[in-house]
Structure formats: structure tokens, C-alpha cells
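agent> fetching stored inputs for the zinc ion docking request
agent> found them:
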Amino acid sequence: MGTSNAYLIESDEGLTLIDAGFPGREAAVFGAIRELARSLDQLKHLIFTHGHPDHIGSAAAIARETGVRTYMHPLDISMAESGGPFRPLKPAPGLLPRVLCRLFFHPNEPVEPVRIDQPLADGELLPIAGGIEVIHTPGHCAGQVALLWRPGRMLFAGDVASNIVGLGDPLGFENLEEGRASQRKLASLSFDAAGFGHGKPIADAASTLFRNKWGI
Ligand SMILES: [Zn+2]
Ligand SMILES: [Zn+2]
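agent> prediction call returned; pasting C-alpha cells
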């Protein structure tokens, strides 16, 4: 929860990064790129699940070094391009989220602004890495999207859900009802693997777990 995940997808046309972590984490991203024996200019796309500080924090530094093209849903673009303030969150149901949300989410702490090159639309299929489908999933954050990477059958759920102590809620919601609807929306999809903004990825049968938790 004090950490957040970013994911690199490797494909013929280059590398795609999903989310950009807290501020000051660019070296970890550059290290991961070099570990794949790629150069920094081979990072072509940076797709944000949403505009929260723990997902855009290192984005400006990464964009400066790589010239990467950036993508985000329109409802979060102004927040990212101003570097905050961020819309407030209400803690998810339960005692622990109430404590952790206050500890880790600071809506008035600015981060370095990042310019967004391309707005994302619900239902759009990005011609990146063999096809990445954009699914608008508001609730935790109005401009949040989940990303379904079709060839890898992997869902990048952002903060629609977390997998810290099992599959569950994110720390907080702007709108709980919308957040539940988004969880149900993802539970209706078919995928094998799932990655989260926070917590461990799931390698197999992930959509079954989503369906058991939020399916109708
Ligand atoms: Zn978030
Ligand atoms: Zn997050």
C-alpha cells in the first residue's frame, strides 16, 4: 500500500508501460527496461489507469528521458497535467482502509505535472502490443480505466480492486456505488491473469476470482 505497481509489456514495436508509480521511482523503471536489454527510447507508450499521485508520480521524469507517448481518460487529464490537487477519496468500508487511506492518500500534496498526449475512450481498442482494450471503470477515480491486453489475456485493473490480502477493494472511493458497478463490469469479462495497482498479480484463473467476488 505504501508501494504501487507498474507493468512493462514487451512487443515487436517496443515497450509499453502501464502506470508510473510514486514520485522518484523512475530509476526502477529504467532498470527494468535495461534488464530486458532494451534502450530507453524503446519505451513507446505510457498508459495510465488513472491520475492519482501513486500512478503518475514518476511519469514526468520518465517522459523526459524517453519521449514516451502518454494516454489517460479525459476525466483525469486536468488533474495529471496540473499535478494536483487530487479529488478527495472516502475510505473503503472497514476499519483498516480508514487508517490506511489517511496514511497513504494526500490529495493536496502536489506531484510533478505530466502532459497527456492522447485521451482514452471507453471501449476503444488500442493498436498497441497486439491490442489493448480500454474499459472505463469509475468509482475509485472518475477517470479510471482498466486495460485488457488481449494477446496476453491479462487484465490491468488499476485500483478498481487490490490484491493485498486477497482480492478486495482499493483503499478508497470517490463514489462507492460506481466503484461496485466497475467491479461487476470487470467480473463479467474473461481473462487469465490480472495485475493491480497495489498487491500481487494473479497468474491464472483471475476472472473466476473476480466473478466469485463481484459477479452477479
Ligand atoms: Zn488510485
Ligand atoms: Zn493507487
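agent> quick read of the result: The CA atoms of residues 195 and 201 lie 4 Å apart.
agent> awaiting further instructions
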